[in-house]
Amino acid sequence: MHFSERPVRVWANAFYGPPRGITFKMYSSPITAVKNLDDFICFAGSGPVVLIYDLREHKCIAKEILLRSSVIHGFETRQISPHDWYVVIFGQRAFTIIKWSNLNSTFEIVVEQISSPSWLLSAYVWQFNHIEQTITVLFGTALNQIYQFVFNKEKNLKDLTLLKSFDYTTLYPINYLF
Do 26 and 8 meet the contact criterion of CB atoms below 8 Å apart? Predict the structure, then answer.
């Protein structure tokens, strides 16, 4: 068996052990980010790969490289309808935004990968406007800066701007600052 084809077991709660049936083939890489949506969908980041699990059926339902040449460090979500979510996937100096649908367990890429001037440590979906189809995301960086990313689907606007630069260390995740 080749190194990249070894079965790997991944589980979120080490106290109870792995759920039955969560086995798939992939390269060996640590899980660096985990986020649950509702009670049954789990996003996991492993290197540049996003793994999406259905916890009711104990299986991986999607596996996709969404951050090329970056390690995923986190997920930030915003529910936009009873069955749809925006998911911001960020890591190192890059991020992307997808739209996840619980109805048919699919996702579409809303914003292709965008590079940041600094390492992204945290993200916060600050605003979402249903009428204008605008989403605003704030990012905290390793250089004590806050960047604002505005995306407008109708106007095809993608704007990443420096919002604030601190002279002191920001030790809190960005959602505690606002």
Answer: yes
